[in-house]
Amino acid sequence: MKLVMFDIDGTLVDSQNVIVEAQKRAFAAHGREPPSRERALSVVGLSLREAFVELTDGQGPVETLAAAYKAAYSELRAHATPEEDRLYPGVDALLRRLAARPDCKLGIATGKSRVGVQKLFARQNWADLFATVQTADDALSKPAPEMFERALRETGVTAENACMVGDTTFDMMMGHRAGAHCIGVAWGYHCHEKLGPAGANVLAHSVDELETRLQEFLK
Q1: Nearest to 194, CA basis, from 165, 168, 163
Q2: Matching Gene3D superfamilies, A to Z (predicted)?
Q3: Is 195 helix (H, G, I), strand (E, B) or coil?
Q4: In which residue ranges of the chain is pLDDT below 70?
Q5: Fold classification of 16-82 (topology level)
Q6: What is the CATH number of domain 2-14+86-218?
Q7: pLDDT for 31-45, tens place per residue?
Q8: What distance in Å separates the CA atoms of residue 51 and residue 101, rounded to the nearest whole number?
Q9: What whole-number percentage of the chain has pLDDT above 70?
Q10: Would you say 183 and 31 are in contact if contact means Cβ atoms under 8 Å apart?
């Protein structure tokens, strides 16, 4: 049995517009200049607290910024159009094909909250696809390997039979530190040229190529 773990934002879902706007509103509520779009996306994948520590260089009111972000994100999500929070083309079909295989389990490792993941699963009818879901509510933030290691324990799969799929250096570092195979996707929020040095064994530039890379891993 093998385990394939997926990040969410920037890997399965293109939620960048909602993320950036929520950050802008959080900073504006505190009379602060918001980060550039590039910097805003650079922290995607970290837990919310760690993201705001990074964005404020450790000098800001992290907890209240995080609370303002959560409120803004929830409001934006409630009124989001499909284009503002959409699956990358081909992702849903890929997940369903993988979940139907008898030789692998699927999992999630994300900086999103568990409530946020549950809402996504409800929208996409994904609840039955994943054997394990690890969030920043339950474990140390990426790039620490704790989320991945918890998933291994829950599923009974060994690290050498596990794979991490993600778009950020945090994803690759987490998977690499846990001893897993790592596939970096080039359509997300971090420069794909940085994924290899962070631990990616291979890169995928499209969902079709990702499926090919996963088939190779699952042999």
Answers
A1: 168
A2: HAD superfamily/HAD-like, Putative phosphatase, domain 2
A3: helix
A4: 80-85
A5: DNA polymerase; domain 1 (1.10.150)
A6: 3.40.50.1000
A7: 999 999 999 999 998
A8: 36
A9: 97
A10: no
